[in-house]
Amino acid sequence: MHCPFCRNADSRVIDSRTADDGSAIRRRRECTACHRRFTTIETSSLSVVKRSGVVEPFSREKVVAGVRKACQGRPVSDDDLALLAQQVEETVRAAGAAQINAHEVGLAILGPLRELDEVAYLRFASVYSAFTSLEDFETAITALRAERPLDPPSAAPADDDSASVEASEPASH
């Protein structure tokens, strides 16, 4: 890192702190030549390789934009989408690679989106997985139903005869 004041290539780190929710490191530096101080922000780069071969930086905004289309008309807030994008980035970064295929980003979206909204999940999955028939939707819906926790058993319905007897008896005071 060159000093922005005198262009000297040597500096020493005075202080380091995390920034941006731990995704970056802020370093306070001092130039060894002119002794002026400056701040640097270090982030790890993460690139996405698209199907066409084009490489571009990972963007939470692109994740949100893609998922927002699937969530149109659904009860999903901007905060929900921002949290989903953060979860996707954490999942992708956990793979430990500097470059990741766009397909892997799509897979990382499916899990959190299924938890957020099942209808939006089906919409996204239908495009992402290129559903071609009703059977593809049926298979996805069957899988969603199989993964749902069982509903707690409700109270047994009252017998029709006992309900009518209770209703016809006068209340005692």
UniProtKB/TrEMBL annotation:
Biased amino acid composition, Low complexity: 164-173
Occurrences of domain ATP-cone (ranges): 46-136
Cofactor(s) required, per the database record: Zn(2+)
Cofactor binding remark: Binds 1 zinc ion.
Any Gene Ontology biological process: negative regulation of DNA-templated transcription
GO molecular function, one term: zinc ion binding
Renumbered zinc finger spans (unnamed): 3-34
Keywords: ATP-binding, DNA-binding, Metal-binding, Nucleotide-binding, Repressor, Transcription, Transcription regulation, Zinc, Zinc-finger
Residue ranges of the region described as Disordered: 148-173
Source taxon at top rank: Bacteria
Family, as annotated: Belongs to the NrdR family.
HAMAP family, sorted: NrdR (MF_00440)
Function per UniProt: Negatively regulates transcription of bacterial ribonucleotide reductase nrd genes and operons by binding to NrdR-boxes.
Name of the featured protein: Transcriptional repressor NrdR
Organism field: Georgenia satyanarayanai
Gene of this entry: nrdR
